[in-house]
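name: query_chain
kind: protein
chains: 1
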Amino acid sequence: MPLEDFIPVEGQRRIAQAITEAERMTSGEICVHVTPHCLGETLPQAEAVFNAKRLYRTMRRNAVLIYIAYKDRKLAVLGDQGINQLVPEGFWNEAIGVLTHHLQRHSPVEGICAAVALIGNKLKDYFPADREDINELSNEVSYDD
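structure:
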C-alpha cells in the first residue's frame, strides 16, 4: 500500500515544508515516519524505526521521531537522549494530542504539520537555532509498507 493512500504527494510536500520551517527555530531535527501497521507495542516499534534510521547520529542527540501506524491507529513521538535528559516527563503528550485530534477527523496532513510546528516551538527553548547548525536528517516523510 503506497504512502499516497494516507498522505497525498502535495501533503507530503506540506509536511516537509513544515519540518523545514520548524527546524529554522531549533537545532533539533524532526522526522516523520508512516507505516500502515504496527506489530506489537507502539513504543518498541517506534524505537526500532528510530534506530534503523540512525536518528541517534545527530550532533546534539536532539532528533525527534513522529511515528504513525495509520491502519492500526497507533502513534508515538520519540525524542533522542539529548532531548529526553532535559525535558519534563510528558513533554510529548501535547504533540500526541494534536496528532490524535486531527487523525480522528481524517486530517493527517494538518495534524502532522501542527504537531511538527508544536515540537519545533517546544524544542527551541532547549535547543535554539544555531548559525553553525546544518540539516542533518531528511525532511521528507519516510514510509514502509
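note: The chain has a mean pLDDT of 93.
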